[in-house]
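Write out this protein's structure.
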Amino acid sequence: RRFFWFAVAIVAAAGLYSAGWFRAADRLVERVNADVAALNRDGRRASCENATARGYPFRIGVFCRSVMFEDARGGFAFRARQFRSAAQVYQPMRIIGELDGPATLEAPGLNALDLDWTSLRASVRLASPRPERVSVEGRGVSVRLNEAGDVSPLLARAETAELHMRPAGDGLDIAARFTGLELD
């Protein structure tokens, strides 16, 4: 009898956990879609194409087929391919994300840039009112001018590029590190 009730309790706990995870995943996708929709006004456009939540059973994260943000008034635009994020269920304030290249960046006063990398990862430790720590690491990073033609001019290349930020009083501590950096 005890074994039977113990087995029933395990199955019930697994069922409740699964229902909770899928409910949280649905709410996460709803929140992402609402936040993206809120950005789409005042001359701005944003997209997280085909947002889905994945990672069951121990992780939860958002996956987008592509990401895009444009601010026509500010002259800023960014487009990239697939985005993936994940947070452990037991540590939801530490989020890890990956972005697939290539990407295009447009900013005021700059020619459009083509960015590419073999691996681009970021991690964020969320806190209030601002994150405790943000780290970005790229491998095989290259920056080229976005020009018509077969080969765009190379502006910079690095075997690895790292950027780390954390709050320091009212300001920020920022550290950057590059290996194999080549500038045109």
